[in-house]
Amino acid sequence: MARKPISEMSFLDHLEELRWLLVRSTLAVVIVACACYFIDDYIFDQIIFGPKDPNFITYRFFCQLTRFFGVDDTYACATEYSFIIQNTEVGGQFSIYLWILITAGFIIGFPYILYEFWRFISPALYEKERKNAALFIIVSTLLFFIGVLFGYFVIVPLSINFFATFNVSDAVVNQFTIESYISMIKTSVVASGLVFELPIIIYFLTKLGLVTPAFLRKYRRAAIVIILIVAAIVTPPDIPSQVVVSIPILILYEVSILISAVVVKKEKENV
């Protein structure tokens, strides 16, 4: 069925469009998740449990970096992580298995979800803006995947390295549940991917008139505080890790200000 012109669509019509957007997006996630079933060994052994290995690429990089600057490499160059991952629930592993496949389906299927989102909002945009659909999907996808990689190769290893080596006493043995381990990875990876969409979010908020570059500059200090708080939540409680995570987010915020300024300038030129 062809879509009605936006001027003829009622509130219920918009809700119907939104419902089908969610249905198609969910179906896409499920299909990709089912496809991931055929590579589940690789997903779990190489990706999920990859950061558990002291020879993981991130650990080797930070180890070489600390040695290059002549810093004590005891923390960065761990040769063994003395912890085990255990399952404590009857259906725990099966539940984790399903959620990992669904998460993989969401991450891999994210470009299609963006396409559906664009189809939903495009009727409210100018014709010239609708022609930028491919650019929107490419940039948004690129930012999301960069965020996912940042979460996986930076935040997750920093967290594992800290919590695996931290010990209040030799009498305590680290035995992490699989639920907490997987939850940390999912949260770090997906949240990083969504946070890296900040420039795109600011673009649309500026188009709607809800945000201006002046507003973003005025509350820059407050934004920095919020960013530091977020970094403190998603990273281990050590200063180097928080700084490493904060820097990319601060850069994204500054880029968002520039994007907002460009949008406002073009809006004034079109008046």
UniProtKB/TrEMBL annotation:
Topology within the bilayer: Multi-pass membrane protein
MF annotations from Gene Ontology: proton motive force dependent protein transmembrane transporter activity
Domain of life: Bacteria
GO biological process: intracellular protein transmembrane transport; protein transport by the Tat complex
Chief place where the protein resides: membrane
Alphabetic keyword roster: Cell membrane, Membrane, Protein transport, Translocation, Transmembrane, Transmembrane helix, Transport
Subcellular location: Cell membrane; Membrane
InterPro entries, per the entry: TatC (IPR002033)
Record-level GO cellular component terms: TAT protein transport complex
Membrane spanning stretches: 21-40, 96-115, 135-160, 180-206, 218-237, 243-264
Family named by the database record: Belongs to the TatC family.
Annotated NCBIfam families: tatC
Assembly with partners or alone: Forms a complex with TatA.
Record function comment: Part of the twin-arginine translocation (Tat) system that transports large folded proteins containing a characteristic twin-arginine motif in their signal peptide across membranes.
Protein name: Sec-independent protein translocase protein TatC
